[in-house]
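Cross-posted from the bioinformatics board.
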Amino acid sequence: MSSIVDTPKPPYYAVIFTSQKIDEDKGYNEMSDKMVELVSQQDGFLGFESAREELGITVSYWKDEKSIINWKANLEHQEAQKLGKELWYKQYKIRIAKVERDYEL
Amino acid sequence: MSSIVDTPKPPYYAVIFTSQKIDEDKGYNEMSDKMVELVSQQDGFLGFESAREELGITVSYWKDEKSIINWKANLEHQEAQKLGKELWYKQYKIRIAKVERDYEL
């Protein structure tokens, strides 16, 4: 379940993760649940928004770049990244971006 | 139809548009098709990625901030923005972010 994240006043960081998954599960859903739990405990993590049709888009929000680098280096997360490359994704692109301004309805 | 955009080397800009739509169409799909056609003609537009489940996420990519400001001010787009507020969206958030680095599989 994903809803619009109540992020703080900019600047903060966004990691835009866009992917094309294989059709089979191959352990993906279990690992995905585990990563959601793990990422929620990370310093500087502000929340994430996610949707998937042909394309999967997950945008996670972070206090600063250091928090993003720490999360990428997390050992359990590294194992998930390795399996992602080997098993689950046909293609993905990750973009690290600094949110400069935002507005809402 | 949405696929991973072949964006240029950073820096460039991303507009992250996250929304919760009403269930009824009320002219949304027609306007959405029209806006896809229109945005593709804008100077500095690099492409977009989109997916919707409970949450809709559309990330559009732009050469620079000026291109984003011009698109927001486009008259036909302004009419769509107005209808979005009045008719189609329960809630949305728009974040303008500078992509600093990216990598891919």
